[in-house]
Amino acid sequence: MRSFELRNAHFDRLVNTPDLKWLGQNTNHAKLHPAVVEAMEKCIRDEEFHIYAPPAGLEELRAGIVDDLGLNELSALVSDGAVASLYHVCHTFLQPGDEFITTDPTWNWPMAFARSVGATVKQIPIYGEEHGYRLAPERLAAAITPKTKVVYIVDPNNPLGTACTAEEISAIADICREAGAYLIHDCTYRHFAYDHTLAAKQYPEKTLTVYSFSKWLGLAGLRVGAIVANGDIIEKLASSPPNNLGSSIFSQRAAVAGLRVKSEWFPDVLANQRENQRLIKEAVDRIEGLHMPVYPSNGNFVVIETGNAGVTPEALAAEYQQHNIMIRQGSYHTATFGDRFIKVSVSVPREWVQEFVDLLPDLIERARGRNETIKLF
Predict the structure, then answer these.
(1) Model pLDDT for residues 225-235, shown as the tens digit of each residue
(2) Strand order from edge to edge, sheet including 225-229
(3) DSSP tag of 297
(4) How far is it, in rounded angstroms, from Cα 145 to Cα 99?
(5) Does residue 210 sit in helix, strand or coil?
(6) What domains can you pick out in the chain, each with its CATH number?
(7) What is the pLDDT, as a whole number, of residue 56?
(8) Keywords of this protein's UniProt record, alphabetized (predicted)?
(9) pTM (two decimals)
(10) Which DSSP category does 158 fall into?
(11) Among 24, 37, 14, which residue's Cα sits nearest to residue 217?
């Protein structure tokens, strides 16, 4: 079986596992606002799905996205999710011989997209107290070369949950401007942050802001997101999109409805995930050897280091798998630092997190010393 078939079969096993507790994908499992459900039901009742959506997205959705970001002077191009946006940007602005700079850890797929068009990828390590788990602008400046075409930052960072400060974003924007490089600011987790600064406000000429409805609104399976940039960049992207017949009108109707009710619905989601973080932190602090290097997290997930407890991330993930709980081993995110941590998603029902923390002491003991090859979710 080919590798892509193996990956697909692996994921098919996940989605067909009854009662799986999804604590590994940063997906939002909060109950949707009735207005979002009604928008989807209306789309089905009216059989609106027979028609194509506008190629750049519904105008109300495009306006709602830039308004949500506070980037009303820029334009939005609706996509089939943030990953599709990233694919589109990498294939439009990178060529063979160009350089793509990002962090380690980062979101891995854009690196694959860059390599697929012949660009080289450079990663700047940010894991560790010595780096503050963030990208220091001076380290980016030292990594820039004349071949640097794109700088890609996930902010807040997945999987670490750190967010750049306003001063850091300003400096990163200045560095990219001086280099003439495009800056992809992947803001998938922006809505969960305690504070967040958009690079597009500092560097509108060449910043591409990636927006997602998968996480804050919980529409991961509907695949709807956007790229936000100045009109010239959007014009270039719109000239050869991966999907010139428009993203799912069903998904866009849900996204429009979500933006309308965001102010009354999302605060409870945010409060719930932050309380879930607190419960996990208390449980971790009670177990010798476990450590949460970033707390509180600016994402809807937390990282837990397991090495000083004598436990490999894979072993602990395997133990939770026996209880139908999916968590992520660090190697899913980074080959360099993956042996140090697990990641646990927290925009989930409280009972899922409670089960996770109740099991933690016993499963740490069971996982200690276990090092055989393990087939994970």
Answers:
(1) 999 999 999 99
(2) 75-79, 225-229, 207-212, 182-186, 148-154, 99-104, 120-125
(3) -
(4) 8
(5) strand
(6) 3-31+263-367 (3.90.1150.10), 34-261 (3.40.640.10)
(7) 97
(8) Aminotransferase, Pyridoxal phosphate, Transferase
(9) 0.96
(10) T
(11) 37
